[in-house]
Amino acid sequence: MSLPHTVEEGDFHSLFLIGRTERYDTRWKATITWWDGKEMHRRTLSGRDGKDLRVVPTGDNRSG
């Protein structure tokens, strides 16, 4: 699927956001914006605890 993408009524799509970091403890937010044909909607995604999403390095950085 490429964006922008039109979704028919009754269709269901899942979005997967993958965050990776090699060196830094990173906090970030994701905002999804869509138009339903009448008005614009916006939803900000957060972690389970309601805080920013967080990605930490795995410690297996072999690039130097």
Describe the structure.
The chain is 0% helix and 28% strand. The protein is mainly β and 64 residues long. Strands 1-4 form a two-stranded antiparallel ribbon. It has a two-stranded antiparallel ribbon with strand order 2-3.
User: How many distinct beta strands?
Assistant: 4
- SSE run: EEEE
Strand content: 25-35%
Shape call: elongated
The chain-level structural class is mainly beta
| Largest pleated sheet | 2 strands, antiparallel
Task: Report mean pLDDT, rounded to a whole number.
Answer: 78
**Helix share bin:** under 10%
Parts with pLDDT < 50 across at least 5 consecutive residues: none
Number of helices: 0
Q: Kindly, what is the distance between the CA atoms of the first and last residues, rounded to a whole number of angstroms?
A: 35 Å
Radius of gyration: 16 Å
Query: How are strands sequenced across the largest beta sheet?
Result: 1-4
Nutshell version of this structure?
The chain is 0% helix and 28% strand. The protein is built from no helices and 4 strands. A hairpin with a 4-residue loop joins strand 2 (30-35) and strand 3.
